TrEMBL record:
<dbReference type="Pfam" id="PF00702">
    <property type="entry name" value="Hydrolase"/>
</dbReference>
<dbReference type="InterPro" id="IPR036412">
    <property type="entry name" value="HAD-like_sf"/>
</dbReference>
<dbReference type="GO" id="GO:0005829">
    <property type="term" value="C:cytosol"/>
</dbReference>
<dbReference type="GO" id="GO:0008967">
    <property type="term" value="F:phosphoglycolate phosphatase activity"/>
</dbReference>
<dbReference type="GO" id="GO:0006281">
    <property type="term" value="P:DNA repair"/>
</dbReference>
<dbReference type="InterPro" id="IPR023214">
    <property type="entry name" value="HAD_sf"/>
</dbReference>
<dbReference type="InterPro" id="IPR006439">
    <property type="entry name" value="HAD-SF_hydro_IA"/>
</dbReference>
<dbReference type="InterPro" id="IPR050155">
    <property type="entry name" value="HAD-like_hydrolase_sf"/>
</dbReference>
<protein>
    <submittedName>
        <fullName>Phosphatase</fullName>
    </submittedName>
</protein>
<dbReference type="InterPro" id="IPR023198">
    <property type="entry name" value="PGP-like_dom2"/>
</dbReference>
Length: 223
C-alpha cells in the first residue's frame, strides 16, 4: 500500500517566512493598520483571508481586505527570483521518493507563488502532486488541505506523515488524523509545535534527513 509524505512549503522547505512577515506588515501599514511583526509572524501559515481576519479587529470594514491581500502579493512577489530552499531540501524529497513515498506539497501559496517556490526547491522530479488552498473551501488549520492532498494520491491518513513549521500545520494534521513532524526553521518555538501536535521536531530539512531512520516516517511500514 502506498505511503504519502506531505510537506508544507513556506518556512518548511523554503526560507520565506520572514519575507512574508515584512510583506504583510507593510501591506497592513499601507492600509492604516498597526500590527507588530511578532503577531504577523505567528499568523504566517494561514491563508491570506484568514490571516487578515486573525490579525485585525473583527468589527472593521472588510471592504479593504482584498486590497491588503493584493498589496502583500505585490510586495512578496519582488522576492521571487531570490527565494532559497533550506539546505538539503531537494535531497530530502528525492530520498523519500526513492524509497517509494508519494511526495505532495501542501501549501497556502497561490499558483504564481508556488511556481517560484518549486523553482527554489528544484526537485520537481520527486513530486507526485501539489495541493493549494485554492483547491479547498477552508485552509489550515482546518484538515481540508491535507485530506485533499491524500485524496490526490489515494493514500489513507494512517499511511501519511505531514511536515510543517507552524502551529496551523500541526493543528491541521491533528484534525486530519495524520502524524506530523515540526521544523524549527520557520521560527516557531519547539514547545509551541509540540503543544499543537507535533510528534517530533527537527531543526530543518537537513536535520530531518539525517534522522529519517528514527523519524515518524520510519514508523510507517512499506506494506
Amino acid at each position: 500500500m502506498d505511503r504519502a509524505a506531505l510537506f508544507d512549503v513556506d518556512g518548511t522547505l523554503v526560507d520565506t517566512n520572514h519575507l512574508h512577515v515584512v510583506a504583510w506588515w507593510e501591506a497592513l501599514r499601507q492600509g492604516g493598520h498597526r500590527v507588530p511583526t511578532h503577531a504577523v509572524h505567528r499568523a504566517i501559515g494561514l491563508p491570506g483571508d484568514q490571516l487578515i481576519e486573525h490579525l485585525l479587529d473583527p468589527s472593521r470594514d472588510r471592504s479593504d481586505d482584498a486590497r491588503l491581500s493584493a498589496a502583500h502579493d505585490t510586495l512578496y512577489g519582488t522576492s521571487f527570483e531570490r527565494l532559497q530552499a533550506f539546505d538539503r531540501t531537494a535531497e530530502l524529497l528525492r530520498t523519500l521518493a526513492g524509497d517509494g513515498w508519494k511526495v505532495v506539497l501542501v501549501t497556502s501559496a497561490k499558483d504564481r507563488e508556488l511556481g517560484a517556490l518549486r523553482r527554489a526547491i528544484d526537485a520537481d522530479d520527486a513530486l507526485t502532486q501539489t495541493a493549494t488552498a485554492d483547491d479547498v473551501e477552508q485552509g489550515k488549520p482546518a484538515p481540508d488541505p491535507l485530506l485533499h492532498a491524500l485524496s490526490l494520491v489515494g493514500v489513507p491518513a494512517e499511511r501519511a506523515v505531514f511536515v510543517g513549521d507552524s502551529v496551523w500545520d500541526m493543528k491541521a494534521a491533528r484534525h486530519a488524523d495524520v502524524v506530523c513532524a515540526g521544523l524549527l526553521c520557520g521560527g516557531i518555538p519547539r514547545a509551541d509545535l509540540t503543544e499543537a501536535g507535533a510528534a517530533a521536531v527537527y531543526d530543518d530539512p537537513a536535520d530531518l534527513l539525517a534522522h529519517l531512520s528514527t523519524s515518524p516516517f520510519a514508523a510507517v511500514p512499506k506494506a
